[in-house]
Write a structure and sequence with these properties.
The protein is α/β, with parallel strands linked by helices. The chain is built from 8 helices and 6 strands, in the order αβαββααααβαββα. It has one domain: CBS-domain, CATH 3.10.580.10. About 5% of the residues have low confidence.
Length: 141
């Protein structure tokens, strides 16, 4: 069996207090990343921010008022957020670096996410796995 640590990609970490401007700088620095992991001290997993979340958070307030968009509560929360901690998705959909690829594939099938953080035994972020990367390493049975 293939272990996730063999196929995961590096995680792009963001501190919980990062501002919109700092988050945007990180996004520009990592143009191929589509998920940013919010991690506290010692790389402890707190949540994640998907690039779709950032799109709404980074719209200028003036444009928002001009177009008069009616947003759902969750989307409005993202728009008005000031820090990574406020916008991040809090969840426990993660996998361990020693998990077998097939078990992570089954986890993806049960939850509605396209990527998930990879943690070590201390719950520190060590990488990210997404469905596409996993698919490319699965063996056909």
């Amino acid at each position: 069996m293939v272990k996730i640590k063999k196929i995961m990609k590096p995680a792009v970490l963001v501190p919980p207090g990062a501002t919109k401007k700092q988050i945007l700088k990180t996004v520009k620095r990592y143009p191929t990343a589509d998920i940013f992991i919010v991690a506290g001290k010692n790389k402890k997993f707190l949540g994640d921010i998907h690039e779709n979340d950032l799109f709404y958070m980074l719209l200028p307030n003036k444009i928002y008022e001009e177009i008069g968009v009616q947003l759902a509560f969750d989307l409005e929360k993202k728009f008005w957020s000031r820090t990574a901690r406020e916008i991040m998705r809090k969840h426990d959909v993660t996998c361990q670096e020693d998990d077998d690829a097939i078990n992570v594939a089954l986890k993806f099938a049960r939850v509605e996410v396209n990527e998930m953080p990879v943690l070590n035994k201390k719950r520190q972020v060590v990488g990210v796995i997404d469905q596409g990367r996993l698919l490319r390493h699965m063996k056909i049975q």
